[in-house]
Amino acid sequence: EGKEGETLKKPLTVAAAIENQGTSSVAQTMWVRGYIVGFCGGKDKVTFVDSASVHAVTTRTNVALADSIGEKDKGRVVIVKLPDGFIREDVNLPDHPENYGKRLTVSGMLMPYNNLPGVVDVCGASSREDLRGFPLYVIE
Fold first, then answer.
1. Neighbours of 45 (CB within 10 A)
2. What is the DSSP string of 68-81?
3. CB 13, CB 33: distance < 8 Å
4. Phi, psi at residue 87, to the nearest 5°?
5. Which parts of the chain are beta strand (E)?
6. How far apart are CA 84 and CA 77, in angstroms?
7. pTM
8. b/e string for 9-43 if b means 16 or more Cβ within 10 A?
9. φ and ψ of 22, to 5 deg
10. What is the pLDDT of residues 70-114, one digit of tens each?
11. For site-directed labelling of 65, which of 20, 80, 94, 130 has its Cα 20 to 30 A away?
12. Residue 113: what are its φ and ψ, rounded to 5°?
């Protein structure tokens, strides 16, 4: 089972991921779970979407996660930097507007992205599963 954040079955909440942000020298890799509520459109800028506005999203490189679907406070989200590959292809909002409001669980380093709390160096760029067949991210 492991400690909170160490496994897919025990991910951190978005609030816990924000509290545990590090820097490039002390960042830790953890599992984080939250609802897709928008994206980061630049330094310090979070754009929240809803079912009507999600079709206008053009940013494929990241998504914003929150602990609740209706969140509108940029201080309560983490930005997941989507690496090139399967996870970006599967998760990004322009290609998959149906992902708005879905829960995403990912493993990555807890460190800022565009001056906002982030999850970067996300696993799953070249494969949807690790060598043992375990998923590297889950969208539900």
1. 12
2. STT---GGGEEEEE
3. yes
4. -65, -40
5. 29-42, 45-48, 62-66, 77-81, 103-110, 118-120, 137-139
6. 22
7. 0.91
8. eebbbbebbbebbeeeeebeebbbbbbbbbbbeee
9. -125, -165
10. 999 999 999 999 998 889 999 999 999 999 999 999 999 999 999
11. 130
12. -135, 120
Question: In 3-state terms, the chain is what percent helix, strand and coil (to 5)?
Answer: 15, 35, 50
Q: How many CB atoms lie within 10 A of CB 128?
A: 15
Helices marked H in the chain — which ranges? 14-19, 86-91
CA distance 105 to 140: 9
Which residues, including other chains, have CB under 8 Å from residue 73's CB and lie 6 or more apart?
none
Per cent of the chain over pLDDT 70 is 91
The structure tokens 């630049």 sit at 42
Under 8 Å CB-to-CB from 99, ≥6 apart: which residues? 36, 63, 91, 92, 93, 139
Q: Compute the average pLDDT of residues 115-124.
A: 89
